[in-house]
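Risk mitigation, structural track. In case the binding assays with diaminopropanoic acid fail to produce interpretable data, a predicted complex structure has been prepared as a fallback.
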Amino acid sequence: NNVIYRADYQEPAFWIDTVDLCFDLDPAKTRVLNRMKLRRNPDVMPQPLRLDGEELNLARVLVNGQGTSFKMENNQLVLENLPDGFEPFDLEIFTTCAPAKNTKLSGLYVSNDSFFTQCEAEGFRRITYFLDRPDVMASYTVLLRADKKAYPVLLSNGNLVEQGDMDDGRHFAKWVDPFRKPSYLFALVAGQLVAREQRIKSRAGNEHLLQVYVRPGDLDKTEHAMNSLMASVAWDEARFGLTLDLERFMIVATSDFNMGAMENKGLNIFNTKYVLASQATATDTDFGNIESVVGHEYFHNWTGNRITCRDWFQLSLKEGLTVFRDQEFSMDLAGEASARAVKRIEDVRVLRTAQFPEDAGPMAHPVRPDQYMEINNFYTVTVYEKGAEVVRMMQTLVGRDGFASGMKLYFERHDGHAVTCDDFAQAIADANPESKLAQLLPQFKRWYSQAGTPRVKAVGHYDAASGIYNLTLTQSCPPTAGQEVKEPFVIPIGLGLLGADGAELSHGMHVLTEATETLTFPGLQAAPVPSILRGFSAPVILEYDYTDAELLTLLAHDTDPFNRWEAGQRLAVNRALGYIGQDGLAAGDIRLDAPYIEAMRTVLRDPKLDAAFKELALTLPAETYLGEQLDVVDPQRIHAVREAMREQLAGALYDDWQWAFETHKENGAYTPDSVSSGRRALTGLALTNLCLAARASGDAVWPGKALQRFKDASNMTDRFNALAALVTSGHELAGQALQRFHAMFKDEALVLDKWFALQAGAPDRGGNVLPAVKQLMKHPDFSLRNPNRARSVIFSYCSANPGGFHRHDAAGYVFWSERVIELDSINPQVAARLARALDRWKKLAEPMRGAAREAIARVAAKPDLSNDVREVVTRALA
Ligand code: DPP
Ligand code: ZN
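Fallback model:
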């Protein structure tokens, strides 16, 4: 088997100091001349040079200008007759590749007649033979040559030092990157592109040129990305003292991209989804995502590029840290405490609906994994989002200023090097020697090594005679593959105690380190209501048997907005689980109790709460989140119960939803700021509820209003929310609105993605979604090759529509297995993501469980499966 282990890490046998690349770009056959200076690594036993390469045609190998013998061994070019000693020598390799045939979108490929590269994690080996590993850092010079008319723009990393015309209609550009870098940060772009440009001056007084390159028709959708980039530059200087280290910083957008974006040095390449926005085509969510992804990639320039990973097991060194940084960036830009809390709630929602299931499923792995078959499978919510939570806990333990000092020390120690997660944690701790982090560092680092989501069970006891309240906290962590027994974690727990009237009696931060600890609070007049894990201070599952009365107190009064929201979610979860577990209870017979409905009404009407918070609080927990609370899952049952609860809230709060809609709908000129996008979010939720209520009552007024709003909307958020209200409520007007929407936006690929996704993710009514999805795949605008489009239809159904996907007749799983196999021969990375839609199959109720297993086995039985998909299905069946 081809499993790679972290414990097997060894330094490379050779270092590569300089790389001089010359590209003759041609879609059918691109010629790559790679001239390197290498030397033996004196710290490693002498051994042959093994260069990685994939799907390359090798034409020539020269050592110090002379031909040499070589052999090929499993995708490696092996050179044995190299000069002895430690003197540098020249290695020249000439290869060709076929970018137009590269459907994997890894390496050098063609999209819309332009050339792009994607080298993380191991794409550079698809461009030339190389020591394609992040600890080999070299200085790059790149000469690009291509037909001038077809490819007027030629870009690579660093600075443009020379350009000119050749005599055959071609032209050239020469780029030099002043910083050493690992191969995964290499990039080139060639094509017909135009740029929005902005000159800025840093605080330090240096001038920089910022550019956002897009296809010619898209220039009017680049303002927000540019603003986000300028904000990112300013933020990193202000918060961490990290300045832009290049004269020029470029972002280029492509519509064919496996991931969100890529932080190549000085030449970030982005999925168009995270660049292009106008009020007519992008929603508030899109605007927010662009801001955070532009920030994320920019912040990588220091956390990832200046200091990179020693090996891919350390991926969270750059990703967890950089997600933490982009989260903080978005919060700082959001402004007030209430807007920061909204962002925090949204981030936690992602963690709990996506990362917690991953941590409990067959792909569970530590933030710093110990092994992999295919590294592309480990760009996960665990490495990214849980990794960010680990960094956040460090900041909690050392304080905001202490964390900034830790970052400073990290750069003093490791700038220009490829390092490990241990190095990062050590720097933060060493800069804060008095902190809990420093005192508990080896134990704290279990967050990097132990997989699984810890549980903290809290039990309170109030003794009226003594006035003492005891809160006992017990932590545990379930076994995961290869880790039967877990040692206790360091868990910072934000705590508050409220009186029954809601007044705050005390608050603080407790750091739980033992398996069990009891906290004592003397001098209380009555049993308090504990507010535990405030701000979601650790990525754990909190178990506490709250009574409804306690939750209602927290929902109404907690000073911590996160726990206020959480109290509302718990009220909903308790009810949903109760209904789900009640045998024989038909969804139509569900009756929500008055206290819950009144509590929701109070939140909705509360003049002191932000619209954005209300939208989050009035949204029921996701179906997948409810599923995670159960041992055996029937996704259709969960869906039916949640829909029934939703319809009841819609009907019971009918007047309140009308009020919410009418009082929040006017918003003046469009700006995507947190206050006005919060208003739009609440308006959208209100409209959906009004249409749902209308569906039950047969009233046609609100669907009519929704259609009108859909037609008149001045921005995509309002237009799309109105469309979604019709589709979600299953109203007959949805069909004509969908048709009109398609006609309006037929030339806007990103908007069409929304159109496809809305239909594939629509609430299932009698099994109607799967046939609709199959129909959508026959639509002339559908393409399996374009990852965004494939995701908008197939993933929206298989991964984001549990009620529609987990059919009792297994047809959803048959569809899934066919698509995984079909995609695998085009693009294994995308296929492997889809393969994970059945991660949690073991929890399914029969007949789904057996059918899911069969579908996974069918995929696993395919002989020429990629490593990517093989790893996912092998683990699922293990
Ligand atoms: N390193 C990229 C990112 O997360 C993913 N390739 O920004
Ligand atoms: Zn990243």
